[in-house]
Task: structure prediction
Amino acid sequence: PWLLAAISAMDPAVKARPEGRYTNAFEAAVSVAARLSVPVNGFAATPGDVAAAVVQHPGATLEQKRAALRPALDAGKIKPLDVLTTLVAKDETPSKAGAARAAPNAPPKTDFLGMALTAFANPEAKPDARSAAYAAALKSADTPSDFRLAAAALSEAIKALPKGETNAETFSRAALSLGDTKQATDWRKAMDEKADPWAAARIDLMLSYTGPAAKPGEILDRLVAALPPLPDPNAAKPAKPPAPTPQSRQLDLRRIENTRALFLFTGTGRALTPDQRALLGSQKSAGRGVSDAAIARIASAADQDANGEAMLASIALLGSDTSALSFAGLSDVLTQMRRIGLDKDADAIALESLQVWKAL
Result:
């Protein structure tokens, strides 16, 4: 059995060592005590508090601590300093077996975060070089967790940079991912709005969900005005549609995000002008659908002041990725959340659905 093998492995003389298990506090404690290796995705189902305990445990191996960083940070159980300390620590006992198990047959990937931390530690690195290295690490993130990890590790380094328009949009999103509204606002002020009006309006939209927004309707108008109008559907179409370009793909993505913003305004109870309502009525929703029956259940629970039931049912509908929900479905869920007094939570979910980690 795994437990007996793990206990035996606490003796350094034992050669046969099982892989560690980290799905609950007991197995994680045994694995840390025996200094067992971490299998691929070994912390995928680990509760945040258990992962944080591994990160902060003085007896845990560096492999264990680094593997636990993402779930611990995603759960808000550790601070950026914990991330930085763990990533820059020197591994005194490298695990060859663990290295061999990581991503078999996967192509080598440039360690942009490692390069950024090297730039941070180099006293001779120029501010422009540091800024470029930090931005590259953030832009290389493949998932929200990767982005948040890089943002946390580089938090103090980015704060030390002189505020300038270069990479300001990226650094503003990094601060937002950590809940640092002040830093996000400072970097937003450094952006050159004329260079990319849509990106500037997008950051303003994100910031508007972190606290009271003066004129959110104007932000929505700026988002819409920053993009060219759709082609006339009645106009003659070319025999062969033009091949998509990076610019056309970006334009399509930004139009989708504008549609998301319109639906989010409805879900979070923000006022829409007549023109904005007319525009909303012409849009198509996208994403994973939400059950009408589930929404009806939440509404019924709210009507009967069963707020706990309504809240739990709403959370079940949201899932782990709110950006994947249909725009109309998410709007309906947020509307019901506001009915039971969860206005701030609705705003936080709206911000999450805007995919802060992505540059669009």
